[in-house]
Specification:
Layout (H helix, E strand, L loop, with lengths): L1 H4 L6 H13 L3 H5 L6 E2 L4 E4 L9 E4 L2 H18 L11 E2 L7 E5 L4 H9 L1 E2 L6 E2 L27 H13 L4 H8 L4 H20 L51
Antiparallel strand pairs: 1-2, 2-3, 4-5, 6-7
Length: about 260
Amino acid sequence: MLKVAHSKPEWETAYLASMLALNTTMRGCEVKQLRWRDIDFMDHSLVIRRSKTRAGERVIPLNANAYNAIMRLRERAQMLFGPDLQADWYVFPSAEGYSKPDPTKPMSGWRSAWRSLTRAVKCRACGELQNPSATCRRAQCGADISKLKSSTSGLRFHDLRHHAITELAESQASDRTIMSIAGHVSQQMLAHYSHVRIEAKRKALDALALGVKTVGYDTKNDTKPAGGTILSSQVLERNGGDDGTRTRGLCRDRAAF
């Protein structure tokens, strides 16, 4: 999904929002409400001030992927509004009804771009990325693509948050650490993530048995941005919970989500 999202300029907003969700556990509403005053560039962190619940208010360290996304968003904002960004301006400015985005209002969403990129299919004959159709949109090709379906069709933006929390659980982060990063997590979901954690431990120990090859959870290392993206940055490893449990970044590097 990340590779597809990075392939077209019109999908960049959805791509950058996805990078933040995958690397911070932020909800879509939290991403849209983010302002420049909420970002600490010196400390490489951001603060969630508005959330679904009061328990969702929190400070989140930015790993390399999230920080690169923030830097790209700042670069875009400076190109649009000048070098001096106002602290109360939104990181994702509204673009509805204006000749250019309005930074004093938050973006309502990226629904169209999200629907388009998650449904996009690639023609097997010519490699053209396009919306589902009966035939390839390239006149020179015209191949039958009626049976092609995107592997990410039906993926919700909120699923990215769940994916990030699952990776935290697999990294052996404690429930307290997960909640300090992700904010409010129901007891039912914590039980699910605890199960994920136990299964990850089981697979790791099974791998020690001679001749045993295990098949299990495979969400780790799934959130690397497409090759050659945005900025380079030193990987940040920040500890999370009060109990001192360390997490090895919110997401690891790999080619595709």
